[in-house]
Design a protein that fits this description.
By secondary structure, this protein is of the alpha+beta class. It contains ten helices and five strands, in the order H-H-E-E-H-E-H-H-E-H-H-E-H-H-H. The protein has one domain: Spore Coat Polysaccharide Biosynthesis Protein SpsA, Chain A.
Length: 194
Amino acid sequence: VLAEQAGWRVLCCERGRARQINAGVEAAQAPLACVVHADSLPPVDMVAVIRETLADKRIALASFTPLITGTRTRWLTSAHNYIKTWYAPLVTRPHLFFRGVRLLFGDHAMFFRREDFLKLGGCTPGDMVMEEADLCVKFARLGRIRMVPRIVRTSDRRIAALGPLKANWIYFKVGILWAVGLRGRMARDYPDVR
């Protein structure tokens, strides 16, 4: 309602982040798209950074660098999320790691060329979790994946609700389930804290 009152176009679709991302990118009219979660705050010059980054045709997909914050800044989880972009592909998709591919996740505010997203088939429709990791694997066929050194601030509500140890254990467990192809279990093991 707030978005509509502000004059924004609001889309409705079936539940599920993958379906929502697909619907949003499909409805977009600009050549570049950015997936920003509702609990994330990108930098004020987001559009300029996206244009500048994707002007390099070698880059297929990019993101901002997430900082988990809210009740307080979660430095350890933020650092782990940064490191995970390297070790996750090393553990789960070593052939991509050795090509320099990073796995980016929802808190990163990923951006890409709309045409490439549609050509690759977008997100796997039923995915409720880890849809961005799948996108990284798909986009790796088209070029480099890069995280720009600009901060996107993301809510720490999950960590605040579950505690840092439990939240990070869940992130790790869901990543392993994704790596071994147990998609049906991922959403069950990733509780909604809203």
